[in-house]
# Entry
Amino acid sequence: MKYFLYIYGCQMNISDAERIEAVLGSLGYNKTKLCDDADLVIFVTCSVRQSAEDRVWGIVRNLNRLRSKGKKLKVILTGCMALRKEVVRKMTGVDIFLDIKDLNKLPQLLGIKPGKEEIESYLSVKPKYENKFTAYVPIMTGCNNFCAYCIVPYVRGREMSRSPQEVIKEVKELIKKGYKEIILLGQNVNSYAPELKIQSSELRTRSKNSKLLKITDFPDLLEYIAQLSGNFWLSFLTSHPKDLSDKLIEVIAKNPRICPYINLPVQAGDDLILKKMNRKYTVKQYKLLVKKIRKSIPEVAISTDIIVGFPGESKKQFLNSVKLFKDMKYDMAYLNQYSPREGTASAKMKDTVSHAEKERRDKELDKVLNKTALAINKKLVGKVLDVLVERKGKSDLWLAKTKTFKVVKFTSDKNLLGKFVKIKITKAKSFGLEGDSVDSLNSI
Ligand code: SF4
# Structure
């Protein structure tokens, strides 16, 4: 039996897919690279943008055509789309709509006898990691924030934190296997709140100086992992600005293993729009937070997410976003044109900004971002940076990333995949760097 997997959306979906693959593997399924060969097609879906949903609808329609010609096939839809009533109602050709939290029921849903191992909760499933040196480790799922435009709390449900011992066990195994990069995941990692009752004596691990270490929040967990021995980078995604604490900033600042990279979605640069978005901070508070982060972690790179054309956003309010971008000088930003998602609070608001105007606003912010990112990157020219080699390009070209999540291109005739290398930066672009391997420079 063969399965084919389509994955859309965020890193959490990539991580979920790794757990689905592990369960399918235990049931005797093998992965195929060709959808046409598959007996089972699984969609791990995203509902954040309409375009991602449209792609899934298109592929399911094609599969329906194949089935009408006699192809035997089962289709599973999981992820955010699977939990939206309007999708479930309208999408024909899907055999199983799977809430990922019910992953333990998958064997039963497929009519197969489950393996010997009982699945306690879906996050306790040991994933089949796709990558050999970077691993995503979810520490929590769900969200309680209900930002007006966001579907996540409706589809992923309320926040649920994994127990620290489970997270630490997974991380320790990864380090033992030689993983070089551990990325802790959560819709808002700062709300990580393990239930104290599940913190058994086993968890009350003794730290090096013999003090009882109790993990009660995200900074505690991050620091504990950062102090494990091994050769790895540690980072996390993502943070709601209202919850990013001084304690977290301190932990990042004093633990060199933690990547100095923070994704801090601002979403709008105008207080009234932020209020309508239910973001629960003001522009002033956000700016103060960034100032504090930069003061404590001077080498930090900050990226953001922003929406243009939120219902009612006037030109003047948009210009406040432009001003914020100029002030903040982001390293990177994910620009999104607002599109209403059925079921959210903002879907009931009038979508007042035209598509053309959203495009224009998007381009304007992009221009500012290009300038600030280039200015920051130019300062790196001449410096020697540690990078993790992620991909091979054509001939001797390699693509790596810095500890601040910047892409670096360099050439080498050695196989450096998954290795840490020192690179002297020779050229800067807005969204990338070029350089020479210090090893090769030394051998000249
Ligand atoms: S914090 Fe807001 S934007 Fe992020 S997942 Fe929760 S509701 Fe969505």
Observations:
- The pocket of iron/sulfur cluster is lined by residues 143, 145-147, 150, 152-153, 187-188, 240 (CB under 6 Å).
